[in-house]
């Protein structure tokens, strides 16, 4: 089979270090082709197998495959009863999909500040932003680092709140050996091409609640009470009910098969990511202008992104660093432009407090290339370009 070119998604041939590099192996290609011979192309045996294996991998009772993580978040919120009039707390530093999912339910997102140390949702801000309308918290395990879930659980317990974890960055991420996504009511994962495991597009919900699992299974399939397979194996195919208007958020068999194949490599690939991240850290720890991400040796950090803080050097800013890296064939990015800066959320969300940390941190962060296949030579080239000479 033909090998993909070792260039990034934009096919820039001068790029020596792409930002991400999805890994589709020959075995991945083989399983994709094999599913083309199945009779059921969606809602079939591969989906069931992927769900079972993912649930086992994450230590959850149930896993429900869906079309992407945005759908996973929306359906999880709906399954716990979030809707109009409710408030859901979300951190300012996350991808727009987190807040969009809240808005799709009709609820009001409440944007809160982040923690200065790990860039995850600030526990203090959660506490201060609580109102009578607060119904849920959506922690996002930013860059693959687990949020302070025990503190969040305590707040939720005291105030009768639900928790939906956005684990898009954190496949394989654990806190005290317990997989993220199992602390709250549900955890939502993304298999978008930049993620640690990809099915091109795809997502998964994990939960220990049978009720949530059943509701999401129904909602992902138009609200129909029987799966496609069940319709043809259990009684008359047209004899089903629609208990609640649902969506088409299914995960097809090709993607599910690819997911099973990728899942076999996730632990090994995450270790490679961590090794590369710790290498950056070891080389950058004594540079005054740089604050490296906190990744502990014995921590199960999913190392999805390598996000460092770059303090302005004279007139040389984070944006100048981005341009310098690009000129030298290195792609980098910024995760993320904070939610409060977007027109749609200025209008439709509640912005809590001054968001001091996220505003400052946003000006200084830069994400460097990080993926299992990154070479020492590529990392050394990145590192060489991080030293700013005046
Ligand atoms: C933090 C976060 N949440 C949610 C999503 C949405 O994932 P998807 O593209 O699978 O809908 C992403 C995707 O990039 C993300 O980074």
- CATH homologous superfamily heading of the largest domain: Type I PLP-dependent aspartate aminotransferase-like (Major domain)
Strand order, main sheet: write it out: 1-9-8-5-4-2-3-12
Main structural class: alpha/beta
Which shape, going by the Cα principal axes?
A: globular
Order of helices and strands: HHEHEHEHEHEEEEEHHHHEEHHEHEH
In percent, how much strand structure appears in the residues?
5-15%
Extended strand count: 13
The CATH class name of the largest domain reads Alpha Beta
| Ligand set | pyridoxal-5'-phosphate
Q: How many separate structural domains? A: 2
Tell me about the largest β-sheet. Answer: 8 strands, mixed
Q: Calculate the mean pLDDT score and round it.
A: 95
**Which fold name corresponds to the CATH topology of the largest domain?**
Aspartate Aminotransferase, domain 2
Describe the 3D structure:
The chain has 390 residues and is of the alpha/beta class. The model has no long low-confidence stretch (mean pLDDT 95). A hairpin with a 2-residue loop joins strand 6 and strand 7. The chain has 14 helices and 13 strands. It has 2 domains: 238 residues, Aspartate Aminotransferase, domain 2; 119 residues, Aspartate Aminotransferase, domain 1 (Alpha-Beta Complex). The longest helix is centred in the last third of the chain and has 19 residues. Bound molecules: pyridoxal-5'-phosphate (PLP). The site of pyridoxal-5'-phosphate has 14 residues, from helix 3 and helix 4.
